[in-house]
Specification:
Blueprint (H helix, E strand, L loop, with lengths): L10 E6 L6 E6 L5 H16 L5 E4 L3 H4 L1 H9 L3 E4 L9 H21 L6 H14 L9 H6 L14 E5 L10 E8 L7 E5 L4 E5 L2 E3 L22 E4 L4 E3 L15 H6 L3 H17 L17 E9 L5 E10 L20 H13 L38
Keywords: Hydrolase, Metal-binding
Protein name: Integrase catalytic domain-containing protein
GO molecular function, one term: hydrolase activity
């Protein structure tokens, strides 16, 4: 980290179970501590939950490639899997989880106005919350799937909120409570972590009155929140478990990233149908015509984007395959002039809903399949044929 957490920690490592999405986070002073953290994690899940790790999926960080680490996995019958170089999406569950964690940490610290050195407490609180709340990726909360018990949310508090904490031993004329700041949930005991601005210490207490609507801004050493994290891993007790870092625009599932992966996926027949449906929409809307590539013209590429659409219960409802042109290879003013996508403003939608409610009107909603194909394109664009649907003898 650019700023050390309290306790001298500079890195963190997370493990996320692919089946339940339950996560663990460990703070580390050195990158080389990853091996020890994995052993601690393995011991905890085996002794406390009787779960056994079968597969460990990670990136190609040096801490996972060490001979000692790999030999330990072999000795314990754990299969080691690495994501291919430059393809973090192969470890998508871990990647997405850590991106979410870092977003939460930044928001929590920004709201609380605590010193940036409290990122460790914020991170542990974030994983605690994610484990206890529903996820669209699984049918129940991660906590229930992982432990078999439904979590209680009654004790959750706003990170960084002030609280009047009852003191232990006090002198006769002293105040019976101290105004502190809530900074998390201790793992080893029931209670809450509180930060005392008066002596700069963090302690555990169960006797407190939370002032969640109040702010404490009197001690705010603000600086830019820059969080870095160590590589990414996933393992499998009954499926997988993972560790990762924040990466933009990653899927929150193990959706195929390439055409080859889709055809090798267990749901390859579903992806084939989804692609066929997309191609049929292209032809129905007369999106393109197959021609020979003119001399001097460099065609742009295209790729398939795959996504499993899930319902509220976490089950897959549809398989979507979108064919997208690699428009980033085009240059504004040469290949195109401007872009525009009409989208209704939220306040406009609210006005319409208010009118409908006041007049007791019925509201109908419709969705236009592949709506973007109905737009008019005035430029001539040459694109390569999509994988899986190439007609030989024509180049574009």
């Amino acid at each position: 980290m650019s700023i050390q957490a309290r306790g001298g920690y500079e890195y963190f490592i997370t493990f996320t179970d692919d089946y339940s999405r339950f996560g663990y986070v460990y703070l580390m002073r050195h990158k080389s501590d990853a091996f020890d953290m994995f052993k601690a994690f393995k011991a905890e899940v085996e002794n406390q939950l009787e779960k056994h790790i079968k597969i460990l999926r990670s990136d190609r960080g040096g801490e996972y490639l060490s001979g000692e680490f790999q030999q330990y996995l072999i000795d314990n019958g754990i299969v080691s899997q690495f994501s291919a170089p430059g393809t973090p999406q192969q470890n998508g569950v871990a990647e997405r989880r850590n991106r979410t964690l870092l977003d939460m940490v930044r928001s929590m610290l920004s709201y609380s106005t605590l010193p940036i050195s409290f990122w460790g407490y914020a991170l542990q609180t974030a994983i605690y919350i994610l484990n206890d709340v529903p996820s669209k990726s699984v049918p129940k909360t991660p906590h229930e799937l992982w432990t078999g018990r439904k979590p209680s949310l009654q004790h959750l508090r706003i990170f960084g909120c002030p609280a009047h904490v009852l003191k232990g031993k006090i002198e006769k004329m002293e105040s019976r409570s101290e105004t502190c700041i809530f900074v998390g949930y201790p793992k080893e005991t029931k209670g809450y972590y509180f930060y005392s601005p008066s002596d700069l210490n963090v302690f555990v207490s169960t006797n407190a009155k939370f002032l969640e609507k109040d702010y404490m801004n009197d001690f705010v050493p603000r600086s830019r929140i820059v969080l870095n994290e160590i590589g990414r891993v996933r393992t499998q007790p009954e499926r997988y478990i993972g560790l990762g870092e924040s990466v933009e625009n990653l899927p929150d599932d193990d959706d195929p990233y390439t055409y080859k992966e889709a055809m090798e996926d267990v749901d390859s027949h579903h992806w084939q149908k989804a692609m066929q449906s997309e191609i049929e929409s292209m032809f129905d809307n007369k999106v393109w015509s197959l021609v020979d590539l003119p001399k001097g013209i460099k065609p742009i590429g295209c790729k398939w984007v795959y996504k499993r659409k899930r319902g509220m219960d976490g089950k897959v409802e549809t398989f979507k395959a979108r064919l997208v042109a690699k428009g980033y290879t085009q240059k504004e003013g040469i290949d195109y002039e401007e872009t525009f996508s009409p989208v209704a403003m939220l306040k406009s939608i609210r006005i319409l809903l208010s009118i409908a409610a006041s007049l007791d009107l019925e509201i109908w909603q419709m969705d236009v399949k592949t709506a973007f194909l109905n737009g008019s394109l005035y430029e001539s664009i040459y694109m390569m044929q999509p994988e899986g649907f190439i007609e030989k003898g024509l180049s574009g």
